[in-house]
TrEMBL record:
InterPro entries noted in UniProt: Fosfomycin_Res_Enzymes (IPR051332), Glyas_Bleomycin-R_OHBP_Dase (IPR029068), Glyas_Fos-R_dOase_dom (IPR004360), VOC_core (IPR037523), YwkD-like_dom (IPR037478)
Domain of life: Bacteria
Official protein name in the record: VOC family protein
Transmembrane helix in keyword set: no
This protein's UniProt keywords: Metal-binding
Ranges of residues in domain VOC: 6-129
SUPFAM superfamilies in the cross-refs: Glyoxalase/Bleomycin resistance protein/Dihydroxybiphenyl dioxygenase
Keyword Metal-binding: yes
Amino acid sequence: MLDLQNIHHIAIICSDYEKSKKFYTEVLGLQIVREVYREIRESYKLDLALNGQYVIELFSFKNVPPRLSFPEACGLRHLAFSVTHLQDALKQLDQLQIAHEGIRIDPHTDKKFTFFSDPDGLPIELYEI
């Protein structure tokens, strides 16, 4: 068995780098750790942290194929972030005019959660802890 310690990061490829950079930093509030332009690949790599913990690598590439989200496709299903007060988070999304689903209840934990999407349609879950 491998001696895994934790998840190091999640890599996301976006279609519009500036739009996604703004979404992940200004809407989700992730902090920029490092931003690199890789000239040979004509691609950006943006390292992002949440509360000081490195969590996401955001990549840009030319001519990326669209992601299949609906119906669900094989692969990464969604990103999930925990929040203390889901209703407050939804009010903030409403103020930013970001569409989201209504509140659902997890039938196994009785916790509240909902989904919205990043600029490329990647589902993002907010789960109240």
